[in-house]
Amino acid sequence: MSPVIETDEHQALRSAVAALGAHYGRDYLAKVVAEQRHPTELWYEAAKLGYLGVNLPEEYGGGGGGIAELAIVLEELGAAGCPLLMLVVSPAICGTVIARFGTPAQKRRWLPGLADGTRTMAFGITEPDAGSNSHRITTTARRDGEEWVLTGRKVFVSGVDIADATLIVGRTEDARTGRLKPCLFIVPRDTPGFGRCPIDMELSAAEKQFELTLDEVRLPADALVGDEDAGLLQLFAGLNPERVMTAAFAIGMGRFALSRAVAYACDRTVFKQPIGAHQAIAHPLAQAHIDLELARLMTQKAAYLYDSGDDVAAGEAANMAKYAAAEACVKAVDQAVHTLGGNGLTREFGLASLVTASRVARIAPVSREMILNYVSHQTLGLPKSY
Ligand SMILES: Cc1cc2nc3c(=O)[nH]c(=O)nc-3n(C[C@H](O)[C@H](O)[C@H](O)COP(=O)(O)OP(=O)(O)OC[C@H]3O[C@@H](n4cnc5c(N)ncnc54)[C@H](O)[C@@H]3O)c2cc1C
């Protein structure tokens, strides 16, 4: 199979998820956000149809597919105006890491619930003092007999309130070198010492972001995911799917905004023709469509490489896909809002809030500049400034 052409199964999945998305749509999500709750009905219906765990192994109740399929699910829900952000963290990062590196007991404990949607897991790596420089994270795990004791802080972690646990990236001391190395720990939501405080975001979304404090959080030995010495490999196994999924999230949002703008531009007439007949309106929309299609092509390539087991090539492609999709999304949303004139800023038409939302994909999980740094150094071999 060509890495960039979707199979019949993929296309069937796309249409089926699009139908589910159309059933809920933007109005449903807007209502959920206004009521300050979570899109539980959509979450469980998507789970029942097998979409949430489509990438997880069949023996644990998943669909046996890969990140390509999960990205299709997120993109199509986004294109319908009702994306599920927790797909990026729960099945994509946490599910993948546990499926690939978890112990048999961790797989049995977590994967069936992540696949059928009854359990959710958040993911916490960002720290206030480290930011984009994840080498500087200081959340530290020390051994105390059979237990681990975690201390540190995290920021901007999504969905901790609804997640049964958070996969926390910490560090342990290397017995040989004394240097700190990354390690992943499953921290159940109500563990003593695990505090969370919501961040007041200017984002219209169902999922909240949290600042976390880990104050001598005691965890059993089996809270450590996989192998203490393979933390870095395991971490990247989760970060690449996160980038692919963020790209899918951005493409979905861009498509949603574009479709609203096209419908408006065909309908709204202020001179003789509908505004969409003016090339000043039509061409930027056509460009936005082309950019989104190109970004999708790169996202498909990244997903294909990841699902084929080529982690190194997937890393580069996933970064590029995330970059391209975020830029395409920001531009599509901007042009869509502009196309609607004053209505672009009304609540009724629901596009203005996407201006903020689209910026998320440019910042998280890795910023536009850090991807440009990565490509400058890793791909092009240019020297580093930092
Ligand atoms: C809505 C939302 C949800 C999120 N969810 C999660 C989550 O679930 N889990 C989680 O762990 N994190 C999450 N994050 C955090 C996100 O991953 C970080 O915000 C992101 O990694 C950037 O880190 P920072 O905010 O500290 O920015 P900083 O690192 O402080 O960067 C600020 C600016 O400086 C630029 N910059 C920094 N260094 C360089 C450099 N060397 N060269 C050029 N430019 C540079 C950056 O590109 C950026 O524009 C979320 C963030 C948001 C906004």
Description:
With 386 residues, this protein is α+β, with helices and mostly antiparallel strands. It folds into 3 domains: 8-120, Orthogonal Bundle (Butyryl-Coa Dehydrogenase, subunit A, domain 1); 123-226, Butyryl-CoA Dehydrogenase, subunit A, domain 2, CATH 2.40.110.10; 232-379, Butyryl-CoA Dehydrogenase, subunit A, domain 3, CATH 1.20.140. It contains 10 helices and 7 strands. It has helices spanning 8-34, 40-48, 67-79, 86-101, 104-116, 231-267, 279-307, 311-339, 352-363, 368-379; strands spanning 121-124, 140-144, 147-158, 165-173, 180-188, 194-198, 209-219. The strands form 2 sheets. It has a 4-stranded antiparallel β-sheet, with no helix packed on it. Strands 1-4-5 form a 3-stranded mixed β-sheet, covered by helices on one side. Helix 3 packs parallel to helix 6, helix 7 packs antiparallel against helix 8 and helix 8 (311-339) packs antiparallel against helix 9 (352-363). The protein is globular, with a radius of gyration of 21 Å. Flavin-adenine dinucleotide is lined by residues 89, 123-126, 131-132, 156-158, 203, 209, 360, 363-367, 369-370, 373, 386.
Short description:
This protein has 386 residues and is α+β, with helices and mostly antiparallel strands. Helices cover 51% and strands 14% of the residues.
